[in-house]
Design brief:
Length: 172
């Protein structure tokens, strides 16, 4: 296993969050090439998934932070990703999340991971304000943004024409 260094590892009640690793590729590919990823990907080809995963890993090298892959303490199988995100051309710093495993949806894992990622962004990266970009048809992500305390910010610019912007105000 080759890992990015140095990168932090976060722990919550049920989850471990760490930087993405090459061994996460099969889980990412399965997610990204499925219909489950239709809100975040331009197409479902393995080639696009490969490039996107390179983007995820490269973000850590280029920015010094990025999305964390998360898994349950008792099972190292990756079940999703959440973290601070700010690729070139993004209007603002973002906290994002995905659940890769359909079996893990609806169990609060995304909220738990996003809460830890938001605290990391505030406490370690000193972010004062950040957003989550949500496709207007992604009602589950919109509900999670609201659960995290974010509110719609219609004045903010989104990276995609149709994306809604949810602003996370104040400390995590």
């Amino acid at each position: 296993m080759i890992a990015l260094a140095p990168t932090p590892t976060l722990r919550t009640e049920r989850l471990t969050l760490r930087a993405p690793q090459g061994e996460d590729w099969p889980a990412w590919k399965a997610f990204c090439t499925s219909d489950r990823a239709h809100f975040i990907r331009p197409d479902d080809s393995p080639r696009t998934a490969w490039r996107a995963f390179g983007h995820v890993i490269g973000h850590w090298a280029m920015r010094g932070f990025g999305s964390f892959v998360f898994y349950r303490h008792d099972d190292p199988t990756p079940i999703g990703m959440s973290g601070p995100w700010f690729p070139e051309g993004w209007p603002e710093t973002e906290i994002g999340w995905t659940i890769w495993s359909p079996e893990c949806e609806g169990q609060g894992y995304a909220a738990e991971a996003a809460t830890a990622a938001l605290a990391f962004a505030r406490d370690t990266l000193n972010w004062q304000s950040d957003v989550s970009y949500v496709h207007p048809d992604n009602h589950r992500s919109a509900a999670l943004a609201a659960r995290l305390g974010a509110t719609p910010d219609p004045e903010a610019t989104a990276p995609g024409e149709d994306d809604l912007v949810y602003r996370h105000w104040g400390p995590a």
